[in-house]
Amino acid sequence: MDDFIAARSQMALSLGFHIIFSCIGMVMPFFMAVSHFQWLRTGDSNYKNLTKAWSKGVAIFFATGAVSGTVLSFELGLLWPKFMEHAGPIFGMPFSLEGTAFFIEAIALGFFLYGWGRFHPWFHWFTGVVVGLSGLASGILVVAANAWMNSPAGFDFVNGNYVNIDPMRAMFNDAWLSQAIHMSLAAFAATGFAVAGVHALMILRRRNVQFHTRAFRIAALFAAVAAVLQPLSGDFSAKDVARRQPAKLAAMEAHFHTEKRASLVLGGLPDEQGKKVDYAIKIPGMLSFLAHGNFEQEVTGLDRIPVADQPPVLVPHLAFQLMVGLGMGMVALSLLYFLAIWRQKQWLRSNWLLKLFVAATPAGFIAVEAGWTVTEVGRQPWIINGVMRTADAVTPMPGIAYSFYLFSAVYVSLSLVVIFLLYRQIKMVPELYDRPAQLVAA
């Protein structure tokens, strides 16, 4: 493995793990706050027990997210020194603000974990809300930095120098809003389906049914709302990408030839040598409509992009198809759940609906990983779109491959520790929180 591939692989591995930890850390505090609110409003001790159980999960993911995020910050400097040398002064503001949000989150989480019986009940609940809001702000600020890489702004590039730097304009670049909305909804959908799936499995096994039923309802509702809104966000993002990054859109859609009334490609295997897609279903005019709002407008293909600036096609296209396919599956399950709440309440007690949620447990996070693959691989060969190539930003330090193997072992170990802690926490639920009367179905 050469050093360039090793550096990219190490960054991809680190981001792939961190994005799961950070999504859960962003979203779980909101589940916790809703459960806490329900306890304060109703006095139902199941909600109090659920809040305490979820708060331990929040603490676990806060710690692992902090560790993996710290590693990423070091990797930016060690693996991509040229990038940080030039980009740091421009997009450093969202990172510094993210650090502030992180500290607020840490303080609020400490208040919440140790505030039981020490604070006024509603102030205690408010500290949990602050954990969620500051975590969400942290995620949006990091996404703003990534959006700047896709849509660089806030500077002039003159004779190889970055001048007239405007950090606020860099942070609020043209891509930040669409990426922030899309990523936030993805985090809520992914975490919601994962948490709902775990609790649905416990209900099917007849374990602590009242406890897990309340947990399932909160997580499933968050997941369903986010999943139904996500296609609207996706449409907003697609139109934005079509305007700013036509090469990325062409790679995502395996759109090799510029044409009017461009077809939307469903599935298929791109043949980059033959400039075609095999085994695909094509819907005439639909790509033009999704990209530009009408069925006739021309969509730029890869034939309009200089060969040296073309991204790879196979990986972004397959990742995009996977993301969209899983997203539509989650939308279908969400609509089914809403129908059950509205007209078919007996479905809420049926095993088949719970089994569908169990099957959907990993779907959201697979879609998140696929979406970030599209975002990052589709931008290649640029680390700063149109300004700096990835190959020009990598460290000259030899031996990066050994670092990649070491960090792979660290992240796998960290994941195993998290799985063990969560498994133990779930197993401890009846011992810590349940009473015999609570073992009866709701």
TrEMBL record:
Entry-linked Pfam families: Cyt_bd_oxida_I (PF01654)
The alphabetized UniProt keywords are: Cell membrane, Electron transport, Heme, Iron, Membrane, Metal-binding, Transmembrane, Transmembrane helix, Transport
Q: Might you name a Gene Ontology BP term for this protein?
A: aerobic electron transport chain
Name the residues that span the membrane: 12-37, 58-80, 100-116, 123-149, 181-203, 215-233, 318-340, 352-372, 402-423
Q: Does the keyword Electron transport apply?
A: yes
UniProt key word Lyase: no
Q: Which is one GO molecular function term here?
A: electron transfer activity
> Which InterPro entries does the record match to this protein?
Cyt-d_ubiquinol_oxidase_su_1
Gene Ontology cellular component list: cytochrome complex; plasma membrane
Could you say which protein family the record assigns here?
Answer: Belongs to the cytochrome ubiquinol oxidase subunit 1 family.
UniProt-recorded name of the protein? Cytochrome ubiquinol oxidase subunit I
**Per the UniProt entry, what species is this protein from, by scientific name?**
Hymenobacter telluris
